[in-house]
């Protein structure tokens, strides 16, 4: 009975060590940075879907991560702090955009380097920004525009269709047609 207890304890310890090893490997190779690099700020109207830890990319390559999100109490705009690798030197006229990883995926900050001679320094703000585009808002606007377009077509077709029938019966009927053509023939003669 004692041998079975020791074997079970040793097996459990080995499983626990292997699990800790897998977890350490996953954390080390997860691609998440620990905030290394210099900090840049950007102001956005909307940051829907962006969160602390989201990627910062240039041309699709990860160069940093979002380290903080806060609201400016005076302008009510969202201020996003990003950490960018030290070897990346962005020109002063660079732009930041909140983009989607996929149709249903998360959001990330996409940086587009400018052409200015001077570089952004740590703690400076990227001034050219484009906010997050909400798929729900776009879909809502599309549905609203289609329904308003359909309702305006049905409203304009109903009154004009009714007036066409009235015009058709007064002008296009047998009496209106014969009077028009008769009058036209008599003038031609």
What this model shows, in words?
The chain is α/β, with parallel strands linked by helices. Among the domains are: 1-30; 35-136. It is 42% helix and 24% strand. It has an eight-stranded mixed β-sheet with strand order 7-1-4-3-2-6-5-8, with no helix packed on it. The model is unreliable at 161-189 (pLDDT under 50).
Describe the structure in brief:
This protein has 189 residues and is α/β, with parallel strands linked by helices. The chain has three helices and eight strands.
Distance between the termini: 128 Å
Number of helices: 3
How many strand units?
8
Q: Which oligomerization state do the chains in this entry correspond to?
A: single chain
What can be said about the biggest beta sheet? 8 strands, mixed
Secondary structure category: alpha/beta
Order of helices and strands: HEEEEEEEEHH
* Radius of gyration computed on alpha carbons: 34 Å
Descriptive labels:
single chain; 3 helices; 189 residues; eight-stranded mixed β-sheet; alpha/beta; disordered C terminus; 42% helix
Secondary-structure blueprint:
Blueprint: H1 2-28, E1 38-44, E2 55-58, E3 61-71, E4 78-84, E5 95-100, E6 107-112, E7 125-126, E8 128-130, H2 135-171, H3 174-188
Parallel strand pairs: 1-7, 2-6, 5-8
Antiparallel strand pairs: 1-4, 2-3, 3-4, 5-6
């Amino acid at each position: 009975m004692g041998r079975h207890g020791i074997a079970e304890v040793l097996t459990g310890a080995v499983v626990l060590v292997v699990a800790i090893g897998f977890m350490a490997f996953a954390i080390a190779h997860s691609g998440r940075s620990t905030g290394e690099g210099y900090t840049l700020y950007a102001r956005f109207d909307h940051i829907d879907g962006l969160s602390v830890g989201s990627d910062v990319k240039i041309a699709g390559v990860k160069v940093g991560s979002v380290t903080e999100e806060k609201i400016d109490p005076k302008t009510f705009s969202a201020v996003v702090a990003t950490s960018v690798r030290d070897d990346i030197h962005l020109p002063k006229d660079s732009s930041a955009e909140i983009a989607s990883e996929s149709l249903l995926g998360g959001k990330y900050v996409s940086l587009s380097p400018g052409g200015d001679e001077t570089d952004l320094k740590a703690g400076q703000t990227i001034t050219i920004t484009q906010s997050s585009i909400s798929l729900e808002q776009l879909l809502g606007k599309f549905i609203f525009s289609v329904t308003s377009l359909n309702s305006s077509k049905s409203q304009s077709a109903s009154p004009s269709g009714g007036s066409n029938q009235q015009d058709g019966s007064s002008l296009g009927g047998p009496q209106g047609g014969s009077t028009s053509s008769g009058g036209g023939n008599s003038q031609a003669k």
